[in-house]
Amino acid sequence: MRKFFQCAATFSGILSIMILSFTGLVGAGLPDDFYVRYGESLNIGNQIYTAYKNDSLSTANAISDSGQSGTVALKYQGILPIKEVSVNYIEEIQVVPCGVAFGIKMFTAGVVVVRTADVDSEQGLVCPAALAGIKTGDVITSIDGKVVETNEQVAELINASGGKEIILSINRKNLGFDITITPVKSNYDGEYKGGIWVRDSSAGIGTMTFYNEENGTFGGLGHPVCDVETGEILPLMSGEIVAVDITGINKGVGGVPGELRGSFSSNGIRGNLLMNTETGVYGTLNANPTDHSPIPLGLRQEIEIGEATILCTLDGGDPQEFSVNIENVDLSGSNPTKNMVIRVTDPLLLEATGGIVQGMSGSPIIQNGKLVGAVTHVFVNDPAKGYGIFAENMVKTSSHLMELSLTH
Q1: CATH architecture of 118-194
Q2: Per-domain residue ranges for the chain?
Q3: pTM for this predicted structure
Q4: Is 361 among the catalytic positions?
Q5: Active-site pick, 121, 202, 223, 363
Q6: Catalytic site residue 144?
């Protein structure tokens, strides 16, 4: 009998360890906070994890006396405790899914250093910028106290130094500081140079994800506009949204991503670009860019593995809807733009593009009549597959845009 109890105790200990390992692993893969529509229950993954407060099924209306936020316990299959999470209730949000190709013209706040290079001078090959500690990706905001916004201004101020020390105000990964450099005279043209190449603007094509009829704001791309050489997010000073004419498609194949080819339309400016962020680009539009009707915003916990559709524009016509399959959903939020994996299943889209191509970033992902995400990246070795961002992340950033507008 003693041996039986010893075995039972050992089994119980092993089971406890297995349960703790399971709950720890599952809990690590879930975020610490959720949005829930007012009056609805927090159910995750087809109700595998359900939120309880004081052992009662919890709704957003019952989470706290204030009706604004609170803490609930997630239980697996309604039995096994997983973790406690914060829940914030929200009213239902409706936005217009777009899928419209659009052009981006943006000017940076300051100029971005895209590379440093030696100058052929009387002292030999020398790079004043590199010697002073300037790095690729740095943003130069002023020279000797004078604000710089263009490549030409930088060249003029450096040449005007006559070889004397000048002070460059630098922004590096949101840290501001000054660097002193001493330009050298070039043997090539006799002008003084700092040995830096800079960029002051960018242009490209993407896809608009949603439009909010209530405040005229939009969100697109689902990822930031980055410098092609440094990979750093371009600091936005000002920008415009313009119409685009899609002129052709370079089909994607394994190892070589495809792209939408297009040109800026003569139809003029459609709106203003106000934010270039990790989750996409945001701004205001002059009018609704489509004739689509608003649909509810799908929250991340509502996304299911299975069928969905995307909206995108492949020619001079209106956006078209194509079938995809959502293969994976990562609720952890460890990456702000790669929250789900999708596979294109629509034969027409596969024939036309090979799957996901550059320029389709921002294409809305719709499931069960709700906007749940946007296409962000393609798998280079398998263009039929790509990543998507939660629409919740983009709308949250867009709402922050409106808060900023109201405070200025």
Answers
A1: Roll (2.30)
A2: 2-90, 94-104+201-406, 118-194
A3: 0.82
A4: yes
A5: 223
A6: no
